[in-house]
Amino acid sequence: IFGLFAGAVSIFLFGRLFTLVLCEILLVLCVFLPMFLPKLIPDGHGRVKFFGRILDIVKAFSYIFKSKITWFFFLAFAATQGIVSFGVTLTPGFFDEIVRLPIHRSPLFVLPLVGLGVILGSIAINFVKIRESFWVSLGLGIIGISGLVLGLLLKLDLLDSLALILLSGVFTVLVVFGVIVTMTVSRTAIQRRVAHSYQGTVFGANIMLGSFMAAVASPLSATFEVLIGYTSILIFGGIIFLLAAIMIGQVGLRWKF
User: The whole model's pTM is what?
Assistant: First the structure.
Protein backbone atom coordinates (compact mmCIF):
# COMPACT_ATOMS: atom_id res chain seq x y z
CA ILE A 1 0.00 0.00 0.00
CA PHE A 2 2.83 2.38 0.89
CA GLY A 3 4.61 1.65 -2.40
CA LEU A 4 1.47 2.34 -4.45
CA PHE A 5 0.83 5.55 -2.54
CA ALA A 6 4.45 6.67 -2.94
CA GLY A 7 4.21 5.97 -6.67
CA ALA A 8 1.07 8.09 -6.93
CA VAL A 9 2.75 10.95 -5.06
CA SER A 10 5.81 10.66 -7.32
CA ILE A 11 3.68 10.83 -10.47
CA PHE A 12 1.75 13.81 -9.11
CA LEU A 13 4.88 15.77 -8.08
CA PHE A 14 7.56 14.72 -10.57
CA GLY A 15 5.73 13.21 -13.54
CA ARG A 16 5.50 9.79 -15.14
CA LEU A 17 9.00 9.68 -16.66
CA PHE A 18 10.75 10.29 -13.33
CA THR A 19 8.56 7.67 -11.63
CA LEU A 20 9.27 5.13 -14.38
CA VAL A 21 13.04 5.67 -14.07
CA LEU A 22 12.80 5.36 -10.29
CA CYS A 23 10.90 2.07 -10.65
CA GLU A 24 13.57 0.74 -13.03
CA ILE A 25 16.30 1.61 -10.52
CA LEU A 26 14.43 -0.18 -7.74
CA LEU A 27 13.90 -3.23 -9.96
CA VAL A 28 17.64 -3.40 -10.70
CA LEU A 29 18.36 -3.21 -6.98
CA CYS A 30 15.93 -6.09 -6.42
CA VAL A 31 17.96 -8.16 -8.87
CA PHE A 32 21.34 -7.51 -7.24
CA LEU A 33 20.42 -7.45 -3.54
CA PRO A 34 19.66 -11.21 -3.35
CA MET A 35 23.23 -11.89 -4.47
CA PHE A 36 24.41 -10.76 -1.03
CA LEU A 37 22.17 -13.24 0.79
CA PRO A 38 23.55 -16.55 2.12
CA LYS A 39 23.51 -19.36 -0.42
CA LEU A 40 20.98 -22.16 0.02
CA ILE A 41 22.12 -25.60 -1.14
CA PRO A 42 19.31 -27.78 -2.58
CA ASP A 43 18.62 -30.88 -0.54
CA GLY A 44 18.00 -34.04 -2.53
CA HIS A 45 17.42 -34.78 -6.20
CA GLY A 46 15.39 -32.09 -8.00
CA ARG A 47 12.93 -34.43 -9.73
CA VAL A 48 12.36 -36.48 -6.59
CA LYS A 49 11.85 -33.29 -4.62
CA PHE A 50 9.33 -31.99 -7.15
CA PHE A 51 7.16 -35.11 -7.03
CA GLY A 52 7.47 -35.10 -3.25
CA ARG A 53 6.04 -31.58 -3.14
CA ILE A 54 3.15 -32.58 -5.38
CA LEU A 55 2.43 -35.51 -3.08
CA ASP A 56 2.52 -33.20 -0.05
CA ILE A 57 -0.03 -30.89 -1.70
CA VAL A 58 -2.34 -33.81 -2.45
CA LYS A 59 -2.04 -34.93 1.17
CA ALA A 60 -2.78 -31.36 2.31
CA PHE A 61 -6.02 -31.22 0.33
CA SER A 62 -6.99 -34.65 1.67
CA TYR A 63 -6.31 -33.42 5.20
CA ILE A 64 -8.35 -30.24 4.66
CA PHE A 65 -11.45 -31.92 3.31
CA LYS A 66 -11.65 -34.29 6.26
CA SER A 67 -13.03 -31.35 8.26
CA LYS A 68 -15.88 -29.31 6.81
CA ILE A 69 -15.09 -26.32 9.01
CA THR A 70 -11.45 -26.31 7.90
CA TRP A 71 -12.30 -26.40 4.20
CA PHE A 72 -14.84 -23.63 4.73
CA PHE A 73 -12.12 -21.26 5.97
CA PHE A 74 -9.67 -22.62 3.41
CA LEU A 75 -12.01 -21.65 0.56
CA ALA A 76 -12.92 -18.32 2.20
CA PHE A 77 -9.26 -17.34 2.56
CA ALA A 78 -8.51 -18.27 -1.07
CA ALA A 79 -11.64 -16.47 -2.30
CA THR A 80 -10.46 -13.19 -0.80
CA GLN A 81 -7.56 -13.23 -3.27
CA GLY A 82 -10.10 -13.31 -6.08
CA ILE A 83 -12.12 -10.50 -4.48
CA VAL A 84 -9.01 -8.32 -4.21
CA SER A 85 -8.02 -9.03 -7.81
CA PHE A 86 -11.55 -8.28 -9.02
CA GLY A 87 -11.66 -4.98 -7.18
CA VAL A 88 -8.14 -3.83 -8.06
CA THR A 89 -8.84 -4.39 -11.75
CA LEU A 90 -11.97 -2.21 -11.66
CA THR A 91 -10.84 0.54 -9.29
CA PRO A 92 -8.77 2.78 -11.64
CA GLY A 93 -11.44 2.81 -14.33
CA PHE A 94 -14.27 3.33 -11.83
CA PHE A 95 -12.67 6.41 -10.30
CA ASP A 96 -11.68 7.73 -13.72
CA GLU A 97 -15.00 7.22 -15.54
CA ILE A 98 -17.58 7.40 -12.73
CA VAL A 99 -16.04 9.56 -9.97
CA ARG A 100 -14.09 11.71 -12.49
CA LEU A 101 -10.77 11.41 -10.69
CA PRO A 102 -7.96 10.93 -13.26
CA ILE A 103 -5.92 7.74 -12.96
CA HIS A 104 -2.73 9.65 -12.08
CA ARG A 105 -4.50 11.37 -9.16
CA SER A 106 -6.99 8.80 -7.88
CA PRO A 107 -4.35 6.77 -5.96
CA LEU A 108 -3.75 9.85 -3.78
CA PHE A 109 -7.40 9.62 -2.78
CA VAL A 110 -7.91 5.84 -2.77
CA LEU A 111 -4.79 4.42 -1.13
CA PRO A 112 -5.02 6.30 2.21
CA LEU A 113 -8.60 5.04 2.44
CA VAL A 114 -7.36 1.51 1.76
CA GLY A 115 -4.90 1.91 4.62
CA LEU A 116 -7.69 3.18 6.87
CA GLY A 117 -9.83 0.15 6.01
CA VAL A 118 -6.93 -2.19 6.82
CA ILE A 119 -6.35 -0.49 10.18
CA LEU A 120 -10.04 -0.52 11.15
CA GLY A 121 -10.40 -4.17 10.15
CA SER A 122 -7.33 -5.17 12.16
CA ILE A 123 -8.54 -3.27 15.22
CA ALA A 124 -12.01 -4.83 15.01
CA ILE A 125 -10.60 -8.35 14.76
CA ASN A 126 -8.35 -7.87 17.78
CA PHE A 127 -10.81 -6.16 20.10
CA VAL A 128 -14.20 -7.67 19.23
CA LYS A 129 -14.49 -11.37 20.09
CA ILE A 130 -17.33 -13.04 18.20
CA ARG A 131 -17.81 -16.28 16.26
CA GLU A 132 -15.49 -16.79 13.32
CA SER A 133 -18.32 -17.57 10.91
CA PHE A 134 -20.09 -14.37 11.99
CA TRP A 135 -16.98 -12.34 11.16
CA VAL A 136 -16.84 -13.84 7.68
CA SER A 137 -20.58 -13.27 7.20
CA LEU A 138 -20.24 -9.70 8.49
CA GLY A 139 -17.30 -8.94 6.20
CA LEU A 140 -19.07 -10.16 3.07
CA GLY A 141 -22.32 -8.48 4.16
CA ILE A 142 -20.60 -5.11 4.53
CA ILE A 143 -19.13 -5.46 1.04
CA GLY A 144 -22.56 -6.40 -0.31
CA ILE A 145 -24.54 -3.62 1.37
CA SER A 146 -22.06 -0.88 0.48
CA GLY A 147 -21.86 -1.99 -3.15
CA LEU A 148 -25.63 -2.32 -3.50
CA VAL A 149 -26.34 1.10 -1.96
CA LEU A 150 -23.72 2.89 -4.05
CA GLY A 151 -24.86 1.10 -7.20
CA LEU A 152 -28.52 2.02 -6.66
CA LEU A 153 -27.66 5.65 -5.95
CA LEU A 154 -25.65 5.79 -9.17
CA LYS A 155 -28.41 4.04 -11.11
CA LEU A 156 -31.00 6.56 -9.89
CA ASP A 157 -28.61 9.47 -10.51
CA LEU A 158 -29.09 10.87 -7.01
CA LEU A 159 -25.49 11.96 -6.37
CA ASP A 160 -23.74 15.21 -7.24
CA SER A 161 -19.97 15.34 -7.71
CA LEU A 162 -19.06 15.99 -4.07
CA ALA A 163 -21.47 13.38 -2.71
CA LEU A 164 -20.15 10.83 -5.21
CA ILE A 165 -16.57 11.41 -4.13
CA LEU A 166 -17.47 11.14 -0.43
CA LEU A 167 -19.60 8.02 -0.84
CA SER A 168 -16.98 6.39 -3.05
CA GLY A 169 -14.45 7.00 -0.28
CA VAL A 170 -16.75 5.46 2.32
CA PHE A 171 -17.38 2.53 -0.03
CA THR A 172 -13.63 1.97 -0.42
CA VAL A 173 -13.07 1.90 3.33
CA LEU A 174 -15.98 -0.50 3.90
CA VAL A 175 -14.93 -2.90 1.15
CA VAL A 176 -11.35 -3.05 2.42
CA PHE A 177 -12.66 -3.52 5.97
CA GLY A 178 -14.81 -6.44 4.83
CA VAL A 179 -11.97 -8.08 2.91
CA ILE A 180 -9.47 -7.71 5.77
CA VAL A 181 -11.93 -9.09 8.31
CA THR A 182 -12.74 -12.11 6.14
CA MET A 183 -9.10 -12.75 5.23
CA THR A 184 -7.71 -12.39 8.75
CA VAL A 185 -10.35 -14.52 10.43
CA SER A 186 -10.06 -17.26 7.81
CA ARG A 187 -6.28 -17.38 8.02
CA THR A 188 -6.34 -17.46 11.82
CA ALA A 189 -8.95 -20.23 11.82
CA ILE A 190 -6.85 -22.35 9.44
CA GLN A 191 -3.74 -21.82 11.53
CA ARG A 192 -5.59 -22.77 14.70
CA ARG A 193 -7.38 -25.84 13.33
CA VAL A 194 -4.64 -27.38 11.17
CA ALA A 195 -1.89 -29.42 12.79
CA HIS A 196 1.48 -27.68 12.81
CA SER A 197 3.10 -30.40 10.68
CA TYR A 198 0.57 -29.72 7.88
CA GLN A 199 0.42 -25.93 8.04
CA GLY A 200 3.20 -25.21 5.56
CA THR A 201 1.73 -27.49 2.91
CA VAL A 202 -1.84 -26.34 3.59
CA PHE A 203 -0.95 -22.67 3.19
CA GLY A 204 1.09 -23.51 0.11
CA ALA A 205 -1.96 -25.20 -1.40
CA ASN A 206 -4.05 -22.20 -0.40
CA ILE A 207 -1.66 -19.85 -2.20
CA MET A 208 -2.02 -21.97 -5.34
CA LEU A 209 -5.83 -21.89 -5.16
CA GLY A 210 -5.87 -18.18 -4.31
CA SER A 211 -3.56 -17.40 -7.25
CA PHE A 212 -5.87 -19.31 -9.56
CA MET A 213 -8.91 -17.40 -8.27
CA ALA A 214 -7.09 -14.08 -8.69
CA ALA A 215 -6.05 -14.99 -12.23
CA VAL A 216 -9.66 -15.79 -13.12
CA ALA A 217 -11.23 -12.83 -11.29
CA SER A 218 -9.17 -10.11 -12.97
CA PRO A 219 -10.14 -10.79 -16.62
CA LEU A 220 -13.66 -11.68 -15.46
CA SER A 221 -14.09 -8.24 -13.89
CA ALA A 222 -12.85 -6.52 -17.06
CA THR A 223 -15.30 -8.59 -19.12
CA PHE A 224 -18.22 -7.69 -16.86
CA GLU A 225 -17.30 -4.01 -17.05
CA VAL A 226 -17.48 -4.10 -20.84
CA LEU A 227 -20.75 -6.05 -20.88
CA ILE A 228 -22.79 -4.44 -18.10
CA GLY A 229 -20.81 -1.47 -16.73
CA TYR A 230 -19.66 -0.40 -13.26
CA THR A 231 -23.09 0.44 -11.86
CA SER A 232 -24.59 -2.95 -12.66
CA ILE A 233 -21.52 -4.68 -11.25
CA LEU A 234 -22.04 -2.83 -7.97
CA ILE A 235 -25.74 -3.74 -7.83
CA PHE A 236 -25.52 -7.40 -8.82
CA GLY A 237 -22.25 -7.90 -6.96
CA GLY A 238 -23.80 -6.39 -3.85
CA ILE A 239 -26.76 -8.77 -4.07
CA ILE A 240 -24.45 -11.78 -4.52
CA PHE A 241 -22.31 -10.82 -1.52
CA LEU A 242 -25.41 -10.27 0.62
CA LEU A 243 -26.79 -13.70 -0.29
CA ALA A 244 -23.41 -15.27 0.44
CA ALA A 245 -23.28 -13.50 3.82
CA ILE A 246 -26.76 -14.77 4.77
CA MET A 247 -25.89 -18.31 3.68
CA ILE A 248 -22.61 -18.31 5.62
CA GLY A 249 -24.39 -16.97 8.70
CA GLN A 250 -26.89 -19.83 8.54
CA VAL A 251 -24.15 -22.40 8.00
CA GLY A 252 -22.23 -21.00 10.96
CA LEU A 253 -25.27 -21.37 13.20
CA ARG A 254 -25.91 -24.90 11.99
CA TRP A 255 -22.29 -26.06 12.27
CA LYS A 256 -21.72 -24.02 15.46
CA PHE A 257 -18.44 -22.34 14.64
Answer: 0.81
